[in-house]
Amino acid sequence: CLLLARAMGKLQSKISFHTTKYRADGSVGQTGPAGASQQHSPAHTDAVASVAALKPDLCVSGGRDKSVAVSSWRSGAALRRFIGHEREVTKVTSALDSNRVFSASRDKTVMMWELQGSSGPSQHFPGHDLVVTGLAVSPDASQLCTGSRDNTVCKWDTETGECLGRAAISRNLVTHLCWVPGEPYVIQTSEDKTTRVWDSRELQVAHTFPAKQHIQTCCDVSQDGRYCLSCSSGSAGHGAEATV
Hints:
By secondary structure, the chain is mainly beta. It has a domain at about 90-244: Methylamine Dehydrogenase, Chain H (7 Propeller). The chain is about 5% helix and about 45% strand. It has 1 helix and 21 strands. It has one helix at about 1-15; strands spanning about 50-55, 60-65, 65-70, 80-85, 90-95, 100-105, 110-115, 125, 130-135, 145-150, 150-155, 165-170, 175-180, 185-190, 195-200, 205-210, 215-220, 230, 235, 240, 240-244. The strands form 6 sheets. The chain has a 4-stranded antiparallel sheet with strand order 1-2-3-4, with no helix packed on it. The chain has a 4-stranded antiparallel sheet with strand order 5-6-7-8, with no helix packed on it. A hairpin with a 5-residue loop joins strand 5 and strand 6. The longest helix has 16 residues, at about 1-15. The radius of gyration is 19 Å and the shape is globular. The termini are close together. InterPro entries: WD40/YVTN_repeat-like_dom_sf, WD40_PAC1, WD40_repeat_CS, WD40_repeat_dom_sf, WD40_rpt, WDR31. This is WDR31 protein. It comes from Tichodroma muraria.
């Protein structure tokens, strides 16, 4: 991990001075219009808080304007807009190739939207006492895990909206959740600087990685389920690192 952090630090230094050399498509040294990024019309009227893949050509986003938008990242067109939250949308997610979109909000709730349905929510998940900051859906979109700054993680039935379990850990201010592909496990990062692995079947912690020096802000899992990536915040020139 130390070698990774050092390598990323060197890469970050290079990027800051030679930004045109590093492209998402792997091209090197492109300049001019051919290598320029595309800019589309805004999908939201205020800051965007979260973006997630929906289908190969679609993405879902949520923002401070309290709305959830489904957009084509190729054309930039906003295809659907869902409105129902009373406060800022903090997280959005979906099961890939599913028609279900999920959003979490500072209004302490989570909502489910149907891509082909009405503009209103098809399911409502109340139950947290503070802003919802983590959101992960099972691959078949039948179950949902949510996390909050109230130190709890909850599991829900997406069909009925029933809360199937609730677990609380002191000082576990959840920052992000992601579901391990093909497994009943959910990865969670926290402001207590740890990364936890939850067994969703009993909603119990299966493993806790050693605490880092800084708040862990986000996590993701490789498609084969073997590797977990977590990212941290930083201050005064320290931290802001990724760990595999």
